[in-house]
């Protein structure tokens, strides 16, 4: 198979080779910070050069059309987007784990984290110190929000402009490698959130090297990537190289692809088909599973179908309907896209069918939305009680722990973790973190900061949220978004509940090759029966007394979970009961 990892600056064992796609230039020069410029050799649309004297850690720029610029395929930007690029020998790191278990989709309990906000220090090393805790909780995969270098020292990461350079804010590349190594030693997979729908608006040097961007389409964040226009072949190769790079060089176990509905490509073979096929082949070559999860808001199961069935070939996809249905019901929110949700039966319908909007008319969008989810394992849908979008894209950044009662918070935990779908937790959820998670950023360009601030406020118009959002560029916004790790009695009770729920999921839901289930709704109760394992879950949405005789495995109203009940067969508050039917 083709070695896309040859793009960019790579160490070949004795020296560095650098290859850059710049089809509209006649000349390209390599400029070491301390040394003489060297002209690169042009071969077709590519320029390459063997760097005989340079070593790992040396700083450089490239001269493209008379401008000294960072390398667009830079492996590290130690001073950020405007600084020089650094040569980096990634082969020098000695991995401590060469064989590790990668869970299949059905085995995933995902934990989404932002490295900078996960701990007070906000580094790979400090996050690594919490991995044993996540292992004990039962987590089988970590999903890291985007790492590609973007503007400033703090950012969500979705405006990356150096797709090959892990952000300097969290540590050096080898520290990221060490973090992943530690995950593997604990049988925890490590997934990376990648953004292949646009490049950020600040510090983007790609257009100065070639036609990487397209004018044909628009995303909410600006121009799209040129996957189907003139010269698109080199652009496609670069993104294939990027996917290969994170898997082979850093040993990530897969990706979450951001906003796939905004990756536009009218080529005969969609770029996502090509990437998924390449990763399938790479999986066979490396002898390890590579997970590929698509984010979408369209309930489009063609993402999960193979190419032979006119699909894009993903392993799994995000599904928002369960979140929106539950959130709207328990909080009473009915503005913005929540106006399409909020009825009790929406929750049971989504649990039974995968989607609420499966070809149904959306009053909010004024279009028919979604398709029917049939014939596929329900665990291919990733659901979450909260995630970075559903928390951070609120005006006040509130977590659901601040928006509903403790009883309904526990009900939500059991509803999502014991659902027929694959659960994803958002960092801090498991102990009921109440600190907000804001959208944050840092930039020296105050005009741009003002544009972002106004844009955020405009996004909230449909929701009637208060016009007093925290300034994304304010340092306090970032620090307030960090996990506080407050472990009082309630927090410990929540952790105990999450640990027990995950244990039950692994034993009764994740284990089966297939997952037949039956959903029934009676009064204010939702019953989910898993006949292959004899486990049944009742999600109780009322204050009426519920009594279940038999082999009770879990009752969220028990004192060990912060409830007032001593009898595990009785529930007198909203919550969930789990029991065996035989």
Describe the structure.
The protein is 24% helix and 22% strand. It has 582 residues and is α/β, with parallel strands linked by helices. Among the domains are: 1-318, TIM Barrel, CATH 3.20.20; 518-580, Immunoglobulin-like (Sandwich), CATH 2.60.40. The strands form eight sheets. The chain has an eight-stranded parallel β-barrel with strand order 10-11-14-17-18-19-22-23. Strands 3, 4, 7, 8 and 9 form a five-stranded antiparallel beta sheet that branches. It has a five-stranded antiparallel beta sheet with strand order 24-25-26-30-28, with helices on one face. Helix 7 packs antiparallel against helix 8 (344-353). The protein starts with 7 loop residues before the first strand and ends with a strand. 50% of the residues are buried.
Task: Produce a short descriptive summary.
Among the domains are: 1-318, Alpha-Beta Barrel (TIM Barrel); 518-580, Immunoglobulin-like (Sandwich), CATH 2.60.40. It is 24% helix and 22% strand. It contains 13 helices and 30 strands.
Task: Provide the CATH topology of the domain at 1-318.
Answer: TIM Barrel
- The first-level CATH class name of the domain at 1-318: Alpha Beta
Compute the CA-based radius of gyration.
24 Å
Shape: elongated
Spatial strand order of the main sheet: 10-11-14-17-18-19-22-23
Distance between the termini: 52 Å
Q: CATH-wise, what's the superfamily of the domain at 1-318?
A: Glycosidases
The residue fraction in helices comes out at: 10-25%
- Main sheet record: 8 strands, parallel, barrel
Number of strands: 30
Structural classification = alpha/beta
Strand content: 15-25%
* Overall mean pLDDT: 95
Second CATH tier, the architecture of the domain at 1-318: Alpha-Beta Barrel
Number of helices: 13
Low-confidence stretches: none
């Amino acid at each position: 198979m083709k070695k896309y990892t040859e793009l960019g600056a790579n160490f070949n064992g004795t020296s560095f080779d650098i290859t850059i796609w710049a089809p509209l230039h006649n000349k390209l020069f390599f400029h070491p910070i301390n040394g003489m410029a060297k002209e690169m050799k042009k071969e077709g649309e590519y320029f390459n050069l063997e760097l005989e004297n340079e070593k790992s850690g040396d700083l450089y720029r490239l001269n493209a059309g008379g401008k000294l610029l960072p390398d667009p395929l830079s492996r590290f930007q130690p001073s950020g987007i405007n600084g020089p690029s650094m040569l980096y020998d990634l082969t020098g790191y000695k991995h401590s784990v060469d064989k590790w278990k990668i869970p299949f989709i059905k085995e995933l309990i995902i934990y989404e984290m932002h490295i900078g906000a996960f701990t007070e220090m906000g580094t790979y090393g400090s996050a690594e110190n919490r991995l044993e805790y996540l292992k004990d909780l039962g987590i089988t995969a970590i999903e890291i929000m985007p790492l590609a270098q973007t503007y400033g020292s703090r950012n969500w990461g979705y405006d990356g402009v150096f797709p090959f350079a892990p952000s300097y804010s969290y540590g050096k590349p080898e520290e990221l490698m060490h973090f992943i190594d530690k995950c593997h030693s604990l049988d925890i997979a490590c997934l990376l959130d990648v953004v292949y729908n646009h490049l950020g608006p600040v510090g983007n040097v790609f257009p100065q090297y070639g036609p990487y961007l397209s004018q044909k389409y628009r995303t909410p964040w600006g121009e799209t990537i040129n996957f189907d226009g003139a010269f698109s072949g080199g652009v496609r190769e670069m993104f294939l190289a990027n996917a290969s790079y994170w898997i082979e060089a850093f040993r990530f176990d897969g990706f979450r692809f951001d906003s796939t509905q905004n990756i536009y490509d009218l080529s005969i073979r969609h770029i996502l088909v090509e990437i998924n096929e390449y990763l399938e082949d790479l999986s066979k070559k490396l002898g390890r599973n590579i997970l590929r999860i698509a984010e979408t808001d369209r309930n489009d199961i063609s993402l999960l179908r193979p190419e032979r069935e006119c699909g894009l070939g993903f392993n799994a996809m995000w599904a928002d309907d369960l979140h929106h249905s539950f959130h709207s019901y328990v909080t009473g929110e009915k503005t913005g896209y929540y106006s399409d949700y909020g009825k009790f039966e929406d929750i049971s319908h989504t649990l039974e069918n995968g989607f609420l909007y499966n070809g149904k008319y959306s009053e909010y969008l004024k279009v028919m939305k979604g398709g029917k989810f049939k014939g596929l394992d329900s665990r291919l849908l990733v659901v979450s009680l909260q995630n970075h979008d559903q928390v951070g894209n609120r005006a006040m950044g509130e977590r659901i722990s601040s928006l509903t009662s403790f009883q309904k918070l526990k009900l939500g935990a059991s509803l999502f973790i014991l659902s027929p779908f694959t659960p994803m937790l958002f960092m801090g959820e498991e102990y009921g973190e109440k600190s907000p998670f804001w959208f944050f950023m840092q930039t020296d360009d105050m005009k741009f900061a003002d544009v972002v601030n106004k844009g955020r406020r405009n996004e909230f118009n449909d929701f009637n949220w208060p016009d007093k959002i925290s300034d994304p560029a304010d340092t306090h916004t970032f620090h307030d978004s960090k996990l506080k790790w407050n472990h009082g009695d309630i927090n410990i009770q929540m952790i105990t509940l999450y640990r027990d729920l995950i244990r039950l999921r692994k034993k009764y839901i994740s284990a089966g090759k297939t997952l037949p289930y039956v959903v029934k709704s009676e009064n204010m109760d939702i019953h989910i029966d898993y006949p292959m394992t004899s486990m049944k879950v009742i999600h109780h949405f009322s204050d009426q007394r519920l009594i279940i005789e038999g082999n009770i495995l879990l009752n969220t109203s028990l004192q060990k979970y912060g409830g007032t009940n001593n009898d595990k067969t009785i529930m007198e508050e909203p919550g969930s009961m789990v029991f065996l039917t035989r």
